[in-house]
Structure formats: C-alpha cells, structure tokens
Specification:
single chain, about 220 residues, alpha+beta, 2 domains, three-stranded mixed β-sheet, 9 helices, elongated
Length: about 220
C-alpha cells in the first residue's frame, strides 16, 4: 500500500528533508515524477546514489548524516568522528568539533554495500546493541565511536588529543576503551593501544563512568 502525499510530507519532516528513491516511490511518486524533481535545476538534488535532498541550499551536517544512514540501509549506525561530534566533543585545540569530511557507517557483515562519496562503509560482526538516537539518526556509543575513529588515524598526536579530550570530559572512560579494544578488531588498533598505555603511565586513567550520560540511549 502506498503512502499519500501527506505521508510524504511527514516522512520528509522525520528525515530532515532527505529521502531515498524507494521511499519516494512508496509515497506514491512515479518514476517520471521523481525524475522531474531531480533534473538539473530541479527542486531535489542527489547526495548519494538513490538518496536525495529535497530542500534548497547546502545540506546541513545533520542532513548529510541522515543521507549516509539512508544510503547504507535499515539498522545501520554512524560511528567514528560523526558520532563523537554529537556528543559535544571539542577538537584538538578546544574549539567545537567540525563535521568530518567522511561519515563512517557500521553495516552488518552479512550485508553488502559499497563505500561511495563521503560515506565509508564498515562491515562488522559486532553491530552495537545500543545506540544514541537523535530523531531517526543513530550513532554508536562513545567507546565504540572513539575506537573506530582512532582506528582510521595515522597521526599519534591527533589520536592523543581526541582520546584525552573524551576521557577528561567524562564522555568515555579508559576502562571502557580497553574493553572495546579487547572485543574489537585488532587491525588499526595499535595507535589507540599506545595512547591508552601512555595515559596509564601518566596516571590519568579515571574511574569507569557512564559515557554520554546526558544522551538517551535505546536498543537498535
């Protein structure tokens, strides 16, 4: 059963003005109607394959996050720097964190989706059981998000600054990061292991705290 046009408006409101081709069809738009909207100079613009922004102007950070999840598919989760940004983690110099150029998205290992544009797909057998939800956007919890972010880093100084900032603000604890390292993939973990070892040596390891206490978490 297809949705009516009011259903389309409701969906766009819930998804911050972003929609997939399939969703548009389910809302009653024909192939020609979709094609007309995404024509050069039309009211819609393509953000990712089969994923469109339906409002004018440059996409916001939130719309880019939403589009990344819609492209990756149901149940997928943003991780890495994109997830840390919504936790108000400052940048290395103490300034507000900027939106990352790349969105890392967790995808169940049994499913196939290729990285494209600004989206990097991470296929995993360890999909988080809990997430931070902001509207229809889903983000990994701090320990997983930070570990995934640092796995993609090559600069030790950058990894130190990011990890220390998260720990010092109580967003995540060293103990939870160690646990995530033990459970997670070994590839790319050397930098974070070194950072945590340095922090332990300097006596900065805090007690375990509840990460992201001000954020509501809920099962995926």
């Amino acid at each position: 059963m297809t949705r009516s046009q009011p259903g389309l408006a409701e969906l766009l409101a819930a998804q911050e003005g972003v929609i997939t081709r399939r969703q548009a069809g389910e809302c009653g738009l024909t192939r020609d109607a979709i094609g007309y909207r995404i024509r050069p100079g039309g009211p819609w613009r393509r953000l990712l394959p089969g994923t469109f922004l339906t409002v004018t102007g440059q996409p916001t950070t939130e719309q880019l996050d939403m589009a990344a999840l819609l492209y990756a598919g149901p149940g997928t989760i943003l991780t890495g720097l994109a997830a840390l940004r919504v936790m108000d983690l400052p940048g290395a110099a103490g300034a507000p964190a900027r939106a990352p150029a790349t969105r890392e998205v967790l995808l169940p290992a049994t499913r196939r989706r290729r990285s494209v544009g600004y989206v990097r797909i991470i296929r995993t057998t360890r999909m988080p059981g809990q997430v931070i939800r902001i509207g229809r956007r889903r983000y990994a919890l701090p320990d997983r998000a930070l570990a995934d972010a640092v796995r993609g880093m090559t600069e030790l100084r950058e990894a130190r600054a990011l990890t220390a900032g998260a720990v010092q603000r109580g967003i995540v604890s060293v103990d939870l990061l160690r646990l995530e390292l033990d459970r997670g993939q070994k590839a790319g973990s050397a930098v974070l292991r070194r950072v945590l070892a340095e922090m332990a040596e300097e006596g900065r390891s805090p007690m375990v705290t509840a990460p992201g206490a001000r954020h509501r978490t809920s099962p995926r």
